[in-house]
Amino acid sequence: MTNHDAVVIGAGAGGGIVAKELATAGLNVLLLERGKAVTPADCRKDDLANQRTSALGAPFGPDERRNPRVAVDAKGNARVITVRDGGYNNNAACVGGGTQSYGAMAWRFLPKDFRMKETYGVPAGSTLEDWPIRYEDLEPFYEKAEYELGVSGDMSADPFHGPRRKPLPMPPLPPTREHEILEAATKRMGLHPFPIPMLRNSVPYGGRPPCMRCRWCVGFACEVDAKAGTQNTVIPIALSTGNCRLETQAIVSEITTGADGRPDGVTYFDARDRRQQAKASVIVVSGGAVESARLLLNSKSRLFPQGLGNHSDWVGRNLQGHAYSGATGVFPVDTFDDLGPGASVAVCDYNHGNPGLAGGALLCNEFIRLPVQAYNDVPPGVRSWGRQHKQFLQQNYRRTMGFRGPTQEIPVFDARVQVDSSVKDHWGIPVARLSGGKHPHTLEIAAAMASKAEAVLKEAGATQTWLNKAGPGLSGGQHQAGTCRMGDDPQTSAVNRYCQVHGAENVFVVDGSVHVTNGGFNPVLTIMAIAYWASDFVKREWKGTRFRGA
How many structural domains are present in the chain? Predict the structure, then answer.
């Protein structure tokens, strides 16, 4: 048994920042990560291994033999799945979490993204709600994330972004050929194109070099460390204080409670499968929307018989990711110049203000599509195998361009994470059971976004286009969110505005789980901003060795 001021569970986007903030404030921190510390040498540029399935980041863990889940389809049929199955909704398990394998888009949510109910009302059958905090609350913490980790870009041409006190700390990377084609087309349409903000060095920053423009980016570790993640920014700072200890391959089974019912630490299995205990005054859960909900639900006690914080049955509910939709087009000339990361230019004209639709999405060009990814994005009428398929790719791979984005989902109560006591992982812990699907209006919004993307490609000169529409199934993946919703009312949320679990003032959830809605953007910068926001609260409220809530 060990004793600490704080234990942080998960060394990803949220947990890495919390560990740094608390350690630099003088707290003794134990940072537990279920995966390993990886390097680019451990995750080679193997196109098949990294991109063969929809489970982005699967090569970064978890171990598929030891970590099953249960997926329930629309007819109620349950099956055991592994990390490489699309329905697993994987989030990379390693030091840095998804920030090792992500594409590194660094979006702030828009002010309206925090006021979706106020803006649109509540679609029937949904749990759409406003956040208990506003954009203005997070703005200084967005800025802190942008400067401490390093974000490149230029938001000056985007009239839709929220107020900001400073420009981004680095300029954008030079435009690609796709960028130039799409920028001209969107301007002709009266739209407002601008460079995508990226957690990626365009110039030397933070002691790390600039991007070398290789094609192996999303789904891969950056071999020159130009892509900013918590593993190469804030976690090294936390460790350098001497106040933080990182333990990898640590599988947390439950949050424990003392005789008085107060949470007092965690039980976990170490790298040698030995059962360990760590006591702490503050417990921070940062495992991602699936695993954080699973841990709370598995942490049962006399005062929390349905799981920690689950007295109102809101833990695990409202699972959402993004309904990706857009279009692909074939052009009469080469559009591919092989300059990474590929994704470069975006428009935010369609995030809000779409008649009859509750929200929308940013639209942008894609990361470089490796051949193994391009093989299943062919137009209707072209076979998915054989000579015709090969000929299409040979003739058009360099002339094909995508334009798409992450549609903001309308949350639903029955899109959820439960625990399945009939299926256990390698350590005997009940696994996550995933069920539910998307709200019908989410599919309507996604279809509209696909049509708008197609219009851009046609204006850009595409001679053939086809739509990429979202399906009705459960959404999550590396954009997973919503299962430990933030709110002022304990009857309709799992944590308060500072990410404290209702009924357990010394337990915090700090990851995408707390998102009330998930924006029409990649969510990582918002996760990071919330990590700084929640850490600021913990530091202000810390009293010696005993944490006192607000």
Answer: 1
